[in-house]
Amino acid sequence: MWSKNWHSLLALAVTMLLGAAGAAAQQTAYNTDKNGLGLKGYDPVAYFSEGAPVKGTAAFSATYEGVTYRFASAEHRHQFQADPTRYLPQYGGYCAMGVAMGKKLPIDPAAFRIVDGKLYLNVNKSVQRDWLKDVPGHIARADAAWPALKSAPAI
Hints:
The chain is of the alpha+beta class.
């Protein structure tokens, strides 16, 4: 009896550990705060519709792949829910220049650029000025680095 229970408990423990490891890997793939909030609470749709960062509110929020996003309006939330990948920031919301350099850095929501319909963020305006000097090159390097960097811890 003990042997059967022991195997069941061991299987349950392994399952829980693998699930926690998978959740941790997914968590590091996205730049979130300790509560799972992405984009520091800024509305991802507003970058496209307003051309500027706009703070969202808790009243209009949606969760996608475990990350909570806030919106400035119900309409923005609806647009996001209809096509989330259209509005998600590249590289899980980490700094695009940082990813090009092999690092996961935080972002300043005001240091953004939309390129070919995709949202790219940078750690600050100074880094963004450097990133803008070679956007295609930096995107190519970041795109190449991201698959390996995705599950690495952030700095």
